[in-house]
Amino acid sequence: MTPFPRHCVLSQEGTIAKTVVTSSFDLIVKNSQESSAKIRQIAEHEGGFLISAENYGAQENSSGSLTIRVPAARFEQVRAEIRKLGLRVESEKMEAQDVTKQYVDDAARLRNLRAQEAQYLGILKQAKTVKDTIEVTDKLDEVRGQIEHQQAEFEALSKQVETVALAITLRAEADMQVFGLHWRPLYQLKFAARQGLDGLGDYAASMASFLFYLPTALLWLATILLGAAVGWRILRRAGRALFMPRARAA
């Protein structure tokens, strides 16, 4: 498997790159409910927490899913412990999204808002009239509201950068056997649906790109045809100018 990308690495420009990492597992286990409880304990022990959890079916023939979030620095340890809980891993996927620009922009916007707050506080101290005091106070309240909103967004993004979200699907071994054979209808149905959605997404993206570039392509085609028509007329006129005097002389 591809090594886990660190949430903070040095980019080519020399800035610290920020990434949001997500991971998913499909595990076959002996008991879905017991494995779900153990995964939750692992997450909490490593400084993480549970986001959501669901269980379906009877105790001996159950399936379930849960999502946890753990510190990025402990991801590999958590991943290894979760894999040990399964009889086998049906599938595993990991994605990393670069959010460096958003992170830098949010941090800069927050600094600018705090600088504005400091300026308004300085102006408020120098206000001489009630009118000036009210106007500056209104501006100060507005900036502080923006700071609270921006601070919340920045903290949420920082938490996503500093942690990894793991979505785990659990299925009991009993669900996978029919007459001693490993039968996985739900998994195959889910896989087929995922492939179908991916294909539909690719088709939609291709059609959107085609429609977006179609006007440009038509303009180029019209330009080429117009240039060809103008060139043909110029050649015809040049030909007439060249051969007409000879015809008259003859």
Which short descriptors sum up this protein?
250 residues, alpha+beta, 60% helix, flat
3D architecture notes:
By secondary structure, the chain is α+β, with helices and mostly antiparallel strands. The chain folds into 2 domains: 8-100 and 159-204, no CATH class; 101-158. It is 60% helix and 25% strand. The protein is built from 5 helices and 8 strands. The chain has helices spanning 32-45, 75-85, 100-126, 130-162, 185-249, and strands spanning 8-10, 16-29, 49-58, 61-71, 88-98, 163-172, 177-178, 181-182. The strands form 2 sheets. Strands 1, 2, 3, 4, 5 and 6 form a 6-stranded mixed β-sheet that branches. A two-stranded antiparallel sheet has the order 7-8. A hairpin with a 5-residue loop joins strand 1 and strand 2 (16-29).
Low-confidence stretches: 1-14
Strand content: 25-35%
Number of helices: 5
Radius of gyration: 32 Å
Number of strands: 8
Summarize the main sheet: 6 strands, mixed
String of helices and strands: EEHEEHEHHEEEH
Overall shape: it is flat
- The overall pLDDT average reads 81
Task: Give the topology, please.
Blueprint: E1 8-10, E2 16-29, H1 32-45, E3 49-58, E4 61-71, H2 75-85, E5 88-98, H3 100-126, H4 130-162, E6 163-172, E7 177-178, E8 181-182, H5 185-249
Parallel strand pairs: 2-6
Antiparallel strand pairs: 1-2, 2-5, 3-4, 4-6, 7-8
Helix pairs in contact: 1-2, 3-4
